[in-house]
UniProtKB/TrEMBL annotation:
Keywords: Cytoplasm, DNA-binding, Transcription, Transcription regulation. It comes from the Bacteria. This is HTH-type transcriptional regulator SarZ. GO terms for molecular function: DNA binding; DNA-binding transcription factor activity. It holds the Pfam family Staph_reg_Sar_Rot. GO terms for cellular component: cytoplasm. InterPro entries: HTH_MarR-typ, Transc_reg_Sar_Rot_HTH, WH-like_DNA-bd_sf, WH_DNA-bd_sf. Residues 9-141 form the HTH marR-type domain. It is found in: Cytoplasm. Belongs to the SarZ family. The keyword Transmembrane helix does not apply.
Length: 157
């Protein structure tokens, strides 16, 4: 029997996994300077776009479950980056807002995307940027396909 389908080089998931790990590593120097981790950076980016979100909304945007998001947010609160409060309308919901320190970190993080492009040797010309954006859009297509597949599978169970 031929097991070519099990070769690492034939897997869709491995290059995505490896690229993700290497890109996150490329962020590390900038994130260390800010004193945050990559998951904390993701939360901050989401919160810079929204004045207030629930824990569940943050989890949905980052494709993380509540059990993963909650300790992350608690740690960020301890660091002074955000404020967690109970919803007055629904005590079961925890609302998240950025603290002043979290808001101010946005200006310190503004150079991170350009630094990453430089580390990845992506030139700031139209063709290179277009290729990078095309790849990003194709990855989002894959993410959406997987999410839809998971929803369909969950609905069938």
């Amino acid at each position: 029997m031929n097991y070519d389908q099990l070769k690492l080089e034939n897997q869709l998931c491995f290059p995505l996994y490896a690229a993700s790990r290497l890109i996150i590593r490329a962020y590390q120097q900038d994130l260390d300077r800010l004193g945050i981790t990559y998951p904390q950076y993701l939360v901050l980016m989401v919160m810079w776009e929204h004045e207030e979100l629930t824990v569940n909304e943050i989890g949905e945007k980052l494709i993380l479950n509540t059990n993963t998001v909650t300790p992350l947010l608690k740690r960020m609160e301890t660091m002074g980056l955000l404020i967690r409060t109970q919803s007055k309308a629904d005590q079961r919901k925890v609302l998240i807002k950025l603290s002043e320190q979290g808001v101010n970190m946005q200006s310190k993080a503004a150079e991170i995307p350009a630094n990453l492009l430089s580390k990845l040797n992506i030139k700031a010309n139209d063709a290179e940027i277009a290729r990078a954006l095309d790849l990003k859009n194709r990855l989002y297509d894959i993410i959406n396909l997987v999410k839809e597949s998971e929803q369909t599978t969950t609905e069938l169970v």
